[in-house]
Write a structure and sequence with these properties.
This protein has 6 helices and no strands. It is mainly α. The longest helix is centred in the C-terminal third of the chain and has 18 residues, at 127-144.
Length: 147
Amino acid sequence: MKSLFEEAAKAEIQDRIEQLSDTRNPTWGKMNASQMLHHCQFPLKVALKKEHPSMKPNFLAKLFFKKSMYNDKPWKKNLPTLSKFKVPDQKNFNTEKEALLTLIQEFSEKKNVTSWDPHPMFGTFTGEQWGKMQYKHLDHHLRQFNV
């Protein structure tokens, strides 16, 4: 799995975001492009300690889903989104796009961090796993919009 800590993977994600438009329709799911851009900020904010969602560690999630967060197998279409990460209201496309690109840059600059706070639901991840997980989430949603 590519990592957002790899310069080429980061550039690829940034380029795909630049290809996105506010009129592009998803091939699955209910979010529009602006809502998706806002949604994609949550995991980055959690990693950067800018968001502190109230989630309880979940043994079953750790046991059955943790590895799927960063392994090489793409996530399936229409995976359910936790309610706290749904974006029900309309968002400004350009504002959300710039905010996401800023967070991606900020996250990628943490590539040399050796100690990360635990994920609120899945627990401890290595830096390598955080980088792969962030890439995988962004890739999933950009594929949702065919970019």
